[in-house]
Design a protein that fits this description.
Layout: H1 4-21, H2 33-40, H3 44-56, E1 60-63, E2 67-70, H4 85-91, E3 96-107, H5 110-116, E4 122-132, E5 135-145, H6 162-169, E6 174-183, H7 186-192, E7 199-209, E8 212-222
Helix pairs in contact: 1-3, 2-3
Length: 234
Amino acid sequence: MKPTGAIHAQIRHDIEARIMSGEWEPGQRIPYEHQLMATYGCSRMTVNRALRSLVQAGLIESRKRAGTFVSHPRIHRAALEIPDICDEVTGQGESYRLYLDRREIRAATEEDRRLLQIDGGDVLALECRHHASGRPYALERRLINLSAVPDAADVDFASEPPGSWLLAHVPWTEAEHRITAVNAGAKELVALGISAGAACMSLERWTWRGEERITYARQDYPGDRYALVARFRP
């Protein structure tokens, strides 16, 4: 028999997967509690715990006397989508390659807590380089909150870009971007193959699910090789 905590996590994971895949669309009623109890062979308390966590994450909403429904995402969308660097590169007709330079699971440092805006817990810290047709395309530094995304601890990000994996596997409800121009530091000089004092475009991103912070990422691009173009309507 599975521990109650394992069943609770499985229920949440399965519902998230159905929402993420589009199988359960916004506004669709999810199975009643007694149906979930029968499916997973667990108590009402375990089902309630899973559903409460999904409500708090903003993925579902409970309506009095009507049931529980998939929420309409509260996504802050303006001119920018969340980019998948691999898709960006291949979409331009170039070959893509990923180099993972650092992968570390650690207790959140003071800087990690500041960047992720969390109180503590374990994080996965990644540093990687994205190349396009043999040339440096972007330097990425990323933190993943393992309290929100425990499965990330077992992923080999040497073969799959972290952003691609997160977009494919982790539902999110809100995102925030910050774009700045910065002068290249020592790390950027080497990773991006640029000269001292060259300008870089820095794209920082925070994503979260309800109140849970999922990830913080900073991607630096050579200023003379990258442009952000957005087309949108009012």
